[in-house]
Specification:
about 220 residues; Arc Repressor Mutant, subunit A
């Protein structure tokens, strides 16, 4: 499955779907930094009015993924290193707390096995787009198993620039998804061993790896 596009389900809220499609395009660089986003073209492409489009673009602007300039229009934002660093800080704090809780409480991780299997298949063939999707599901499931699903929603609300950087790493470095998969295994192994400090350290390393392109 491509990271980039899916059709609209007319039985579901349109603004949310448009937001998700446009976000995927920005993360995957299908819409590139500095590129102008044409509301007219998108309205024609998806056969929608501009009202749901503007709602989607406003959400993307809130996440810092697009900017609106008078007399110019809506542009895909350039990578904001300050926002990237802040998002990594927030993500690390929340996700380290999640895995510490899981390790401390000896939570059953059998629900994670299927996701790890899917990741292994994608990593073996360096299908970074598919791996990216399974990576998201993995982190969401950890938060769910910890009884803190809202923590992942909070992470998602700030990590737009993180996702762009993660996708660039996976697309630009051969077999980079294999390393991410190994990091996931390290996290799970520490949780299963009840190693609270080890799980936290493994997650911190995993989350911070996105900063490699900035070093």
């Amino acid at each position: 499955m491509s990271l980039v596009d899916h059709g609209l389900d007319r039985t579901q809220p349109i603004p949310k779907q448009l937001y998700e499609i446009l976000r995927r395009r920005i993360v995957a660089n299908t819409l590139q930094p500095g590129e102008r986003i044409s509301e007219a073209a998108l309205a024609q492409e998806f056969d929608v009015s501009r009202t749901p489009l503007r709602a989607a673009l406003q959400q993307l602007a809130t996440e810092g993924l697009v900017t609106v300039r008078p007399q110019v229009g809506t542009l895909v934002a350039k990578l904001d290193v300050a926002q990237l660093n802040e998002a990594v800080f927030i993500r690390s704090a929340l996700e380290c707390a999640v895995v510490e809780k899981l390790a401390r409480e000896s939570v059953d991780l059998s629900a994670i096995e299927h996701l790890l299997s899917l990741q292994a298949v994608a990593a073996d063939v360096d299908d970074y787009a598919t791996f990216f999707q399974h990576d998201e599901a993995f982190h969401a499931k950890l938060a769910e198993l910890a009884g803190t699903p809202t923590s992942w929603k909070l992470v998602q609300s700030v990590k737009g620039h993180v996702d762009r950087q993660r996708y660039t790493l996976m697309a630009g470095i051969p077999m980079r998804s294999q390393r991410a998969f190994q990091e996931h295994q390290d996290i799970v192994n520490c949780i299963r061993a009840g190693d609270v400090a080890g799980a936290s350290k493994a997650m911190a390393i995993h989350v911070a790896s996105v900063l490699e392109l900035e070093q």
